[in-house]
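Summary for the funding panel

The consortium committed to producing paired sequence-structure records for every protein in the target list. Below we show the first two records in order, beginning with the earlier of the two.
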Amino acid sequence: MIIPYRKYKNREGDLVQLPIVSVRVRCNGVMLPIWALIDSGADVTLLNMSFAQLFNVNFEKAKKIELVGVMEGSGFNGYIQQVNLEVKDVGRIDTIAAFSDSEKYPDYMILGRRGFFEHFSVKFEEYNKQVVIEPKESNPPSFANALVPPFLQ
């Protein structure tokens, strides 16, 4: 599936084109459509505190990990949850995402290496301002449940 980059106004008010895709996320019985940045530099798929509240994430029961953001500079907490992630016309997977305990970062979902890239073939075509996303051939049609990777346990 070829997905053109979307125009997005950054925090400085400049209009930029980014690999942003619409996804459906299910967690704790709640389903939400969310805009997500495809980020090959992100260690894990990530959502902020606002999303955690909408998905009724219980931080006391979730696995806590420390994350470091390039923009933040210092570490912040993430809480691992099982989620179901769907990219229209590409596929649906059961995977993991980390929910941050910060309101400000990120202000949209980030699709990272753990939770997204491990399940899909992703090819950035920066020169065409588009990204090509396809299910990995090794994924069975049912997209078996993902396990929490050892470094996040």
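The next record, for a separate protein in the list, is shown here:
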Amino acid sequence: MQARPRSGIVTRLDTLGILMSSNPNIKLLDRVNRAVSALIEREGRVTYPSLLCEMGVLTPKNLAEWRTGHAQCLERVVSSSLAKLARIQAAVRRIARDRRLDRKLVRAPRGRRYSKTGHPFIEDEYGAVYSAGNPAGRRSHPA
């Protein structure tokens, strides 16, 4: 059963009669989009630590703890679940693709990790630095 759409988002009633959004992550996507825009404007690039600080998920104090080696990994000092961090990463990839941002990988500083597991894909994702593309719109590296 369809309900009246609110602000362009199609909603529906579930079996219990609760109004549900067809895209439950739209608020998170908007929040990430605002943070990415602010970072691109201010710094010209987006890194995950700076993005998480901009979103309020990571405090500067906790970031400093990780950078100095007092925290085992970045994920341990973030005040969010790993599932939400994964949704933030997916949103960043989507935004970067839509805006045609260049992606460069930067490894974690020596002796430190981004993720609890240390999985190479996750480490690469946290180490991604997105920046505005070339003026001609061409990529400087293969995709």
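Regarding this second record: The CA atoms of residues 74 and 114 lie 5 Å apart. The mean pLDDT is 80.
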